[in-house]
Amino acid sequence: MKSMSNVDIFTISNELNNLLSGARVDKSFQPTKDIVVMRFHVPGTGRVDLVMQCGSRIHTSQYPLENPTTPPSFPMLLRKRVKGAHVESIKQHNFDRVVEIKVKKDKYYTIIVELFDKGNIILLDDENNIILPLKRKRLSNRDISSKIEYAFPEERGINPMTITESEFKEVFSDPESDVVRTLARNGLGSLYAEEVIKRANEITELDKNTPNDELTEKQIEGLYSGFKDLFDNLTEGRIKPQIVKDETKEDVVALDLINYENFEKTYFESFNEACDEFYSKKVNTSIKNIKESAWNKKVNKFEKRLRLQQETLDNFYKTIEDSQHKGEVIYSNYPTIENIVNVVNQARSNNYSFKDIGKTLKKAKKDGMAEAQIYESIDKMGVLTLNIDNTTLNIDPKLTIPENAENYYEKAKKAKRKTKGAQIAIENTKKQLENIKAKKDVAMENIAVPKKRVKKNLKWYEKLRWFLSSDGHLVIGGRDANSNESVVKKYLEPNDIYLHADIHGASSTAIKLNGDELNDNLLKESGEFAASFSSAWSMGFTSQDVFWVNPDQVSKTPEAGEFLAKGSFVIRGHRNYIRGARVKLAIGIVDYEGKRIMAGPIEALEKYCDNYVVIKPGFTKKEAIAKKIIHKINEDDLLTLDDIIRVLPSGKCDIDEEYHQRKKYEKS
Length: 668
Fold this sequence. Notes:
The protein contains 16 helices and 29 strands. By secondary structure, the protein is of the alpha+beta class. The two termini are 56 Å apart.
């Protein structure tokens, strides 16, 4: 996969600086060993994900990558140190393939993204010391380890943004090199080196392989003019982000290039967007191969186990067949075997050793004695090995003939008893294999078809907490301090009802009555909504008291000498209480001004949709519970995980399996 050039990084850095300056740092993730994703909240824009891949790329992305269940140490450290920080600046270091992201929290931190060679991502403190690198490296001239001052790579090449004409001419002082190699080795790379030469050729004739010491003054001036013509577009912001391709090549560039004049072009509004389209699908293919290899190892493990278990079962069947056959052969040849056993026992009674007995029997067989023809060998314990009709038997002379036969029959019985366990084990392994293959297919499908996250045009109430009551009234609530202010100041009308859980940390809730009368059922549902979107949920409560008042009792004016924080209000006069409001919610897709996701009281979801999930305070993280919910309700593929997460209450959740089992029983 193509690594970003110095030109690409210059353009990306400028765009990122304009977009993310002042943005708040949110969580960080590490989907693969060399990719880190930092999430930012940009005022007026919302969530922005920045993808950084060591030695390859840096850009914003609309294609979410699958993250590991347990975050690795590097993103966890980023969360600890810089979550909540604000971006001060993002810049390219000396037109090199290095990006500096400077943020401020309690102090300044810098995230260094190295995009040369195999690359690195490094967190620095305010004194430029390394807190932690993604990859520890010790080179001859650089040591990338914790608690060591960070050293930028040695400067090399030219900076097109600052170089003068005289400095440009000095670049061609090496007589051992030619024009194209000189430009390429000085930070431009082959693409832009050839682009400069082609632009120079519009002024003066010049072959790219011309040795430096054969360049004329006019040719050098032409090169400088071509150089300025190209890079003035960058300094003056005249970029045209595009993906270019023909039958053999595809590339992403920030400018119209002569090199690509005959290529098919797709233009984008920003270079970040172009890079996202160019890289993300390729990276998902790469990740797919890595993930598929990992899944194949799991599948192969069960296939190998199944193969060994099947071989074991086959051996049991073979043992049963062979042992029963040998028992039958012993009885079929009872006199013959008895004769040779008697010979051995008689010899032993005359103090012959087993070795001598073996020699005697071997000689007798050689001499043609009929009784000795079945003899093969005798071991030091006296056990005979006989061969009768191509069947090899072990006969112990110390046992009777029936006892020897019984030994084989018993061996067959033991093998037969073991076949049952082996068959059960095989069936279990087959189920496990089918299960792991199914999981692999789902995982591969999710990776193979990356879904671009598209920002939805939300209705005004979707920017808040909301639900539609079972009798058709819209109820809204604040998501945070800012939206709590909006609920009261912007949306609460004289005829509405204001509710708030009787606990610190809760949503300001308003029932939009629209001139209708308040009723007990509406109060009950709204009370459950207000209770669930409060700190009662994260505390694991099952119920919570909620009070309600008229809008004229809600004031932003504090008592004398007091101060009200943002999102807080003073309630004056009598409060009406809803005691023990249930802390529980249902989530489903409802058709209200179009199909959309709604989280509210169970009765409201029962009224408007058949397929919904009931959740309660629990122990499962939002991302994990959202995956379970989307699997159950996303029948028409309307939702993303972000849509589910957005409507969940603050705190961990569990699905109320008892409720769903009861409903299932009632239906049946």
